[in-house]
Amino acid sequence: MKLIVAIVQDKDSAKLLSDLVDHNFRATKLATTGGFLKSGNTTFMIGTEEIRVNKALEIIKRNCQAREQYVAPVSPIGGNADSYIPYPVEVEVGGATVFVLPVDQFYHF
Amino acid sequence: MKLIVAIVQDKDSAKLLSDLVDHNFRATKLATTGGFLKSGNTTFMIGTEEIRVNKALEIIKRNCQAREQYVAPVSPIGGNADSYIPYPVEVEVGGATVFVLPVDQFYHF
Amino acid sequence: MKLIVAIVQDKDSAKLLSDLVDHNFRATKLATTGGFLKSGNTTFMIGTEEIRVNKALEIIKRNCQAREQYVAPVSPIGGNADSYIPYPVEVEVGGATVFVLPVDQFYHF
Ligand code: NI
Ligand code: NI
Ligand code: NI
């Protein structure tokens, strides 16, 4: 048995949970008030047999991996028109920090 | 030293905490927003010497073990009278998922 | 790699986080609803290479160590004047409970 602790962005957490459930993983979400210093993160605890750790990691990676995303420019209403960028900008979203912890004993009562 | 991580139902958490305190365990409750996919769960972290792990597990089990419970029928006011069940129904409540984690170092500052 | 789990008082958590960041540690704060039975605690998870564990412990200790503090007396308005203590009283504040957990695998996606 292993306990996987994964810190992911809030925006990725719903699809991660859904994908985990589809593959019969059991996960607990912890309310996280600051995820490795970036706001808006969620911590998942996933208990799994050793043989399925790689599958869980694959699911976390495909749902949460850091990637570039184009963001539409925000209209400068009420802002400074001089700093207005009139084209989409690339930002990095997603990313996951994952710890696989050894487990001495596991019980389900 | 071991760190016990126990995910239990909200409805069992107050009596579990009280029983742990009565037996001199120190516990931290984490706000959990989804407990192994069932809503309304709470995660306890309990740090304890190895020799007392079994006592902690016994306390978790006796307060949280899954059991059948009869639930009084809800009156069908405003609902569909056709689906009204006029006798108590049995539902499963409780249950706990427990991980005992090894600890390399422990400090109290 | 190690995962440090530190339960500290809320009042120490901002300066702890700031000191950790200044020294390039990455930390996640978990919303804790009861910290080893005292209210108002925060749980930090800090992932770090083994070689930097002592530095992280030093930072936790210097920001959170239990210490005496003088608290100004509260004016007995609306209270019982007989129990009014007209001089500062010493109370213990701070303190940290810290677990260093072994990590089998670590990933950043
Ligand atoms: Ni699949
Ligand atoms: Ni007893
Ligand atoms: Ni320094």
TrEMBL record, chains A, B, C:
<dbReference type="Pfam" id="PF06153">
    <property type="entry name" value="CdAMP_rec"/>
</dbReference>
<protein>
    <recommendedName>
        <fullName>Transcriptional regulator</fullName>
    </recommendedName>
</protein>
<dbReference type="InterPro" id="IPR011322">
    <property type="entry name" value="N-reg_PII-like_a/b"/>
</dbReference>
<dbReference type="InterPro" id="IPR010375">
    <property type="entry name" value="CdAMP_rec"/>
</dbReference>
<dbReference type="InterPro" id="IPR015867">
    <property type="entry name" value="N-reg_PII/ATP_PRibTrfase_C"/>
</dbReference>
